[in-house]
Specification:
The protein is mainly alpha-helical. It contains 7 helices and 2 strands; from the N terminus they run βαααααααβ.
Amino acid sequence: MSPQITKELVVWDPLIRIFHWSLTFFFFLAYLLEGDWPALHSHAGYTVALLIIFRMVWGMIGSMHARFSDFITTPSIALTYFKRLLTSKNETYIGHNPAGAAMILALMTCLLITAFSGISLFAMEGSGPLANTIVASWSGYWLEEVHDFFANFTLFLIVLHTCGVLFTSYRSQENLTRAMITGRKRRVSKSPGE
């Protein structure tokens, strides 16, 4: 049996980790306060929108594994990765794997739609950055339906994301949750000369 070397690689920079856990906190804050604390709900929603805008910018200029160019793939590659993950031991990735990349895009899209529809609803009441714009004249009924649907669909995606992280951690034998806390991933390899 060949000896193995375990080393830790820095993968997630501090801004990505702060973004990830802040987004989680503020989404759940907004989701749980909907209807009961409208001012706090809307401020949490604004924070979610600002976090997503930050992530879009950091996805273009941030550290290597934070950049979209490092992990965005085609849908067919993501589907192939997902099928292999279910049927056999899959290759590991330093940064996001193709399924994780697809989830990031889905979550960011849903969160942007949720935030924009919420800000638009607030504008109809004469408040927020879109007050006194054409958005304030839109139909409140369909905006509310869009806002509620995408908030609930985002929650569904978060549950799916959590299950995917746990399953992928099990299959790849790497603790992805720990990596998003510490910023480091452990890599096991054979010793040199083996």
